[in-house]
């Protein structure tokens, strides 16, 4: 089969050359929008630009960003015209197209960097697209086939229609459109008028004049990874506009991609082609407005297909042979803005779209990366073309089906610096990708060749070369020898052969030279290969290291993650514990508050009580002071009276002695009447004259009264002395220094012998101490009575009632088997007197044991009253003694009576002393004392008789 019969897009099974070209990457710097804008790009040469980090960014990143340079196949500065750019970038591609080679040209850059301007241009400043179209039509203008001669097969191929069908189609079209036949009279849309001025017209160098050409254009948009046909004629429904239907990508039998069902419009002139483009452009704009899309987010692809087929033998019509039709295409792609999603400020649906758009560009980047890696490292990684529609559609280009060129558009403004940096990196990487140089397969040589080829299929290119070579030799002269004498033919032949031999020699030399050169080139290539392999090895080693590092870091991340989980768990526990403690704290605070409140209450209660107590104390103090005063006064009066009585008596005695010395020397018992006389004679004032006068007989009655200069002072009370006196029957007055209240002394004196205790088992009731005046008053009436004086029994009923007793039993006491035992109900039993017990009671009893004069143990219950002292302590005043004694009735006679009243009184004295020691004790304790320092002995020390 003839190679020309194949479409150039079919992957060559055995490419005749292994030459590769890098992807041509050009850079175009647009002028700044405003002159005062900060610029971050500088064009250094026509291949290099330099990026400067803007000042703000430098400050932010501590000057980490240095100035970086990037090189390109060519750099176009701000002053570059559209025409210059076209001449360098697109013109070769158009040439290729006309020579049956495919081409891909795309613009890449951030939004606003001039991609569309570069590709489409503006009125008067036509871009690459209109210029390409113009050049195509300028070149093939006269060789164009009639409309509908070529018919797309809706895949990638073209069919050739017969003339009749083509004619019918043309007639149909003419009847459908109201377009005037002559293009010159047609009004051109002002939007795209003047895209190319006629003087800038361009033309391809060589055009096969024996071929017939036809141009088809398609215009698609890839938005959100969906393909839309922008030239599809859809009936417009203003009420319910149909949303555009997306197209799918298919692969033909040659593994070339095509958009299934995509409209291909046959165009016959630049204007018509551009008009079609503009129609698509308008549709795109409308769709974007209707669907609220951003045009900068979509990729637009304008495909120019050039079909060419040889003319038939007559040179009038296209050869009706599909296999002879050659189709090449040029894709002009205006990519979406390369900026990251954040820059677009896209939200919601738009974000998703923007994400996909970026995804397409990401895929493009990844594909380029993998291609480069495969080429540099000799690997065979799969290139992920299928990951996006854009890369999938153009995968064949990168596999060596055509030239690939890219114009990187940059806006030098500083705001775009970071995005531009990314664009530069991508551009740099893309340049390193090499694409197989498309096999130069001219489908159409000159007419002679074509006719020659028609004779039969020729395999390969070598026969043609051989023929050409052979033709370059001079033909051999006729070598038929006319006769034996023909010495012309042979020398001519020899000459010719020699010439050929010379040529051969030259050729051999040339061949050897070329072979040597080739050899050295091969060697060079070998060494290159070797170094490349070394490099690859090195890279692999580095890769391994990096892999290890990544693994280590992954392990570290795992460990840290575990640790963080653990810490989270701990924090959780601590949180819970804190909560519990806080709960506890709250409840404790609550308790504390309630306790403080209680304390406050108690404190206020205490203060209240204190003030009350103070009131009571002052009351009691006043009362007692008054009482004391009263008693002192009474005592003074009494003393005065006594003195007076004594005086009187002395006077009487003196009178008796002086008057009746001879009559009677014995003292007479004064009569009651007599006694009353001095009272009447008394002139001393007496507050209680009646009671005092009634006392007089007592003293008289006793007959034991002796004038005593050491009259005891009032207030000094000795219970013990009284007890002793009573017991021993010794008059109180005999004891010098003994301090008993005068009233008690008087009472003791006044006691008749008959009333002295009978020996035997008995309780003797005595009242040794009574508060003077009270007793005087109380006893006043019975003193005046005649008859034996009987001490009234202690008012037991008083104590049995509400009174409380302190029952003091010293530990030294021995248990006696007496039938009668003191039993005081409701008493506090103590071994030694203490304040606490005393403060609670108002009565005190001491159980005292001692030897009686007859050697028997006798028990005495010495009673007293407890009252509060001024100092806040307690004092006991003894008031009464009860005696319990055991006696043998038989041995009663041998008891020494004298011992009780014995004149020497020694044993008595001892007992007395003992008792007094115990009984004259008044205990005073201050509040708060522990019976320590506050324990005071209020008894007066017994003064012995000298
Ligand atoms: P993009 O397609 O990359 O988003 P455009 O091509 O739409 O950017 O350019 C944005 C604006 O900048 C347009 O108004 C365009 O006319 C202007 N522009 C771009 N490049 C150039 C240039 N080289 N010279 C003059 N104006 C330009
Ligand atoms: Mg644009």
UniProtKB/TrEMBL annotation:
Coiled-coil annotation reads: 543-612
What keywords is this UniProt entry annotated with? ATP-binding, Cell cycle, Cell division, Coiled coil, Cytoplasm, Cytoskeleton, Isopeptide bond, Microtubule, Mitosis, Motor protein, Nucleotide-binding, Nucleus, Phosphoprotein, Ubl conjugation
Q: Which SUPFAM superfamilies match?
A: P-loop containing nucleoside triphosphate hydrolases (SSF52540)
Name the PROSITE patterns for this protein. KINESIN_MOTOR_1 (PS00411), KINESIN_MOTOR_2 (PS50067)
**Which superkingdom, per the lineage?**
Eukaryota
Where is there biased composition of kind Low complexity?
682-695
Q: What is its main location?
A: cytoplasm
Q: Where is the Kinesin motor domain?
A: 22-433
Region Disordered, as annotated, extends over 1-22, 657-695, 728-757, 887-946
GO molecular function annotations of the record: ATP binding; ATP hydrolysis activity; microtubule binding; microtubule motor activity
**Any one Gene Ontology BP term:** cell division
Subcellular compartments: Cytoplasm, Cytoskeleton, Spindle; Midbody, Midbody ring; Nucleus
Q: Which GO cellular component term is one of those annotated?
A: spindle
* Binding residues for ATP: 109-116
Q: Which InterPro entries match?
A: Kif23_Arf-bd, Kif23_Arf-bd_sf, Kinesin-like_fam, Kinesin_motor_CS, Kinesin_motor_dom, Kinesin_motor_dom_sf, P-loop_NTPase
User: Basic and acidic residues: which segments have biased composition?
Assistant: 660-678
Q: What family does the database annotate?
A: Belongs to the TRAFAC class myosin-kinesin ATPase superfamily. Kinesin family.
Record's function text: Component of the centralspindlin complex that serves as a microtubule-dependent and Rho-mediated signaling required for the myosin contractile ring formation during the cell cycle cytokinesis. Essential for cytokinesis in Rho-mediated signaling. Required for the localization of ECT2 to the central spindle. Plus-end-directed motor enzyme that moves antiparallel microtubules in vitro.
**Subunit structure, briefly?**
Heterotetramer of two molecules each of RACGAP1 and KIF23. Found in the centralspindlin complex. Interacts with RACGAP1; the interaction is direct. Interacts with ECT2 and PRC1. Interacts with ANXA11 during cytokinesis. Interacts with BIRC6/bruce and USP8/UBPY. Interacts with ARF6, forming heterodimers and heterotetramers.
Entry protein name: Kinesin-like protein
Q: Top-down, what is the taxonomic lineage of the species of origin? A: Eukaryota, Metazoa, Chordata, Craniata, Vertebrata
